[in-house]
Amino acid sequence: MLSNAIKFTEQGRVQLALENGGDQWRIIVSDTGIGIPPHARDLIFEEFRQVDQTSRRQYGGTGLGLAIVNKLVRTMGGTVSFQSELGQGSTFTVTLPLQTQALLQPS
Fold it and tell me: What is the architecture of the domain spanning 2-99?
């Protein structure tokens, strides 16, 4: 997510935040980049999907990054969400449960 934020923000800022919400962590990546058009929002977590061919040529990549993030986060019991406005940027939020007790207990 951070790599995408940097890649798609030619001018402006990219911000990374980590928040402890008690029983969960939130990782938030915000940028002031190009944003995601409404027609592409349902597709960005699919493997090998990019917004369009123009973006692929200009920005490169395989279209796997967000698909991998989404699968890893779901495997860990978390969620990935985002908000985006075309031409204004995007904010991606990963929410992961803290299950340290379960991880530390022998099986």
Answer: 2-Layer Sandwich (3.30)
The length of the chain is 107
Pairwise CA distance, residues 41 & 93, whole Å:
15
Who's near 105: CB < 8 A, 6+ residues apart?
none
86's tokens: 């075309």
Identify the helix (H) or strand (E) that includes residue 101: helix 100-104
Euclidean distance between CA atoms 74 and 6, whole angstroms: 24
For residue range 47-104, list pLDDT tens digits in order.
666 665 554 445 556 678 889 999 999 999 999 999 999 999 999 999 999 875 455 5
pTM of the model: 0.78
